[in-house]
TrEMBL record, chain A:
It holds the Pfam family SoxD. It comes from the Bacteria. This is Sarcosine oxidase subunit delta. It comes from Rhodovibrio sodomensis. InterPro entries: SoxD, SoxD_sf.
UniProtKB/TrEMBL annotation, chain B:
It catalyses: sarcosine + O2 + H2O = formaldehyde + glycine + H2O2; sarcosine + (6S)-5,6,7,8-tetrahydrofolate + O2 = (6R)-5,10-methylene-5,6,7,8-tetrahydrofolate + glycine + H2O2. Its main location: cytoplasm. Its EC number is 1.5.3.24. It comes from the Bacteria. Signal peptide: none annotated. InterPro entries: FAD-dep_OxRdtase, FAD/NAD-bd_sf, Rhodanese-like_dom, SoxB. This is Sarcosine oxidase subunit beta. Coiled coil: none annotated. It is found in: Cytoplasm. Its cofactor is FMN; FAD. Residues 36-80 form the Rhodanese domain. Belongs to the SoxB family.
């Protein structure tokens, strides 16, 4: 499986560190909403199919990226820098 | 009524050319209604059905399985049985499971090739030796067996290991003598036969397509590829696809689905008497009765439902094998496969009631479900029959994630690919 790093190009997956589903967003640090924290920390949709997930290119440029990958086939459909994704990118 | 298996029956059938064997369980069409429907005919589902019938007197039970018995994770694991945990909530449960294993062949009248050959965890640093001593003490306090082996003892008992590797020298080991291996798919067949004899209907090639609920949210039945089945209680035991099936009932879970690979080499004369784990690289190996070395290591590390692994983990596993037992370097792999693991956020399983009345959840076995099979069935049957957790499985409730009572044996936090 090769991961397209927006900075370094297609690189082997073992150069990357996996974090998981990119959608859960951390509640504000001063939030005391326990349900929101439990949801963020533990609960996942865990889809079979295309998902957006966070990888870090730890063995390369060290950028955090968001990868569009299919959990049923391992096909990778694209990626962008996590910062761009957070600012409303399309990956 | 199917007859009891025995050596006399075997002799009689040998003389008759094995013409008298009958199917070990019926192949019934689903009835209109059951008291309990278990989704998933793997080891855990079949064990649950068996204990529902035997311990709780609930015999109007169906086990629906989308494939065939023994074709899922129960037939795709490395067959290790053990109870060497440290946290009380885990050890209590696995200890019960191991005790059930010890009487299981007689109870089920089925040869599970249970072999208590011992599980040896190797320590490679002084810190690991201390950690294993702590775990051994926890196990012994709980009444289970554990011994700390010195490097000399290990050299005498497991001579094929590389004990003096410069990078990962063996400093000692934690020996759990009652651990070992069992014939994995035989466990499914043994439970299936025993449950069937108590009246449980086992319905294969029957996939659940929907879980039906009334306006109050109560479970009313399941829709399957063999038609609708009415029931008030549905137990999910679908390891690997727990997230998907639970979603049919609107349940979102603390589970990610990951990929684990396993390997078997060509057959050898006996060279390894125990199950041995290599703590420097998370690698485990044993020798099957056919002589093949059976081994595996870590998850591939990313969410996946493919049931096939990628090459980096094959290489990593081979490197770990060579670090531990350089003598096996010229062996060829006969088989290699990938399995789908439902990894929980704390690395411990879930046996629980849910917020949906009539829906019960058994899942999140990570990659340690096989050894838990009897204990899982025992506790899950109790949970379904009495609507409350069994005392020995009480810490495995789903609501532990909401109340800060996670069971994080590895101490790695809410990151499933690290457990």
């Amino acid at each position: 499986m090769r991961i397209p790093c927006p900075v370094c190009g297609a690189r082997p997956s073992e150069e990357f560190t996996y974090r998981g589903d990119a959608r859960p967003v951390r509640p504000p640090m001063d939030s005391s909403d326990q349900g929101a924290w439990v949801d963020y920390l533990f609960f996942r949709d865990d889809e079979r199919g295309r998902i957006k997930e966070q990888w870090q290119h730890t063995g390369g440029c060290r950028a955090w990226i968001v990868v569009d990958r299919d959990t049923a086939t391992h096909a990778v459909h694209g990626s962008e820098l996590a910062r761009d994704a957070a600012e409303g990118g399309q990956a | 009524m199917m007859s009891q298996y025995s050596v006399f029956q075997l002799l009689r059938e040998t003389l008759r050319g094995h013409t008298g064997w009958r199917p070990a369980w019926r192949d019934p069409a689903p009835k209109q209604r059951y008291d309990v429907v278990i989704v998933g005919g793997g080891g855990h589902g079949l064990a649950t059905a068996y204990y529902l019938a035997k311990e709780h007197g609930i015999t109007n039970v169906a086990v629906v399985e989308k494939g065939y018995l023994g074709g899922g994770n129960v037939g795709r694991n490395t067959t290790i049985v053990r109870a060497n945990y440290m946290l009380p909530g885990n050890q209590r449960f696995y200890s019960k499971s191991l005790a059930l294993w010890e009487g299981l062949e007689q109870e089920l009248n089925f040869n599970l090739m249970m072999s208590q050959r011992g599980v040896l965890n190797l320590a490679h640093t002084d810190g690991q030796v201390d950690m294993f001593a702590r775990r051994a003490n926890a196990m012994r306090l709980h009444g289970d067996d554990a011994e700390i082996w010195s490097p000399e003892k290990i050299a005498a008992e497991v001579p094929m290991l590389d004990l003096d590797s410069a990078r990962f020298p063996v400093r000692g080991g934690l020996m759990h003598k009652r651990g070992g291996t069992a014939r994995h798919d035989g466990v499914a067949w043994g439970y299936a036969r025993a449950a069937d004899r108590l009246g449980v209907d086992i319905i294969q090639n029957c996939e659940v397509t929907a879980i039906e609920r009334d306006p109050q949210g109560r479970i009313t039945g399941v829709d399957t590829t063999k038609g609708r089945i009415k029931t008030g209680k549905v137990g999910l035991a679908v390891a690997g696809h727990t997230s998907q099936v639970a979603q049919m009932a609107g349940l979102r879970l603390p589970i990610e689905t990951h990929l684990l690979q396993a390997f078997v080499t060509e057959g050898l004369k006996p060279i390894l008497d125990q199950v041995v784990t290599f703590a420097a690289g998370h690698f485990y190996i044993s020798q099957s009765d056919k002589g093949g070395l059976v081994f595996g290591s870590s998850l591939d590390g990313y969410n996946s439902y493919t049931a096939r692994g990628n090459l980096p983990m094959v290489e990593h596993t081979a490197e770990a094998a060579m670090s531990l037992m350089p003598c096996i370097g010229r062996l060829r792999l006969l088989r290699h496969w990938g399995g789908v693991m439902d990894m929980t956020m704390d690395g411990s399983p879930i046996i629980s009631t849910t917020h949906v009345p009539g829906l019960y959840l058994n899942g999140g076995w990570c990659y340690g479900g096989f050894k838990a099979t009897p204990g899982s069935g025992w506790c899950f049957a109790h949970t379904i029959a009495r609507d409350q957790p069994h005392p020995i499985g009480a810490d495995l409730r789903l609501d532990r994630f909401m109340t800060g009572r996670e069971l994080d044996e590895a101490g790695t936090g809410a990151q499933p690919n690290l457990h």
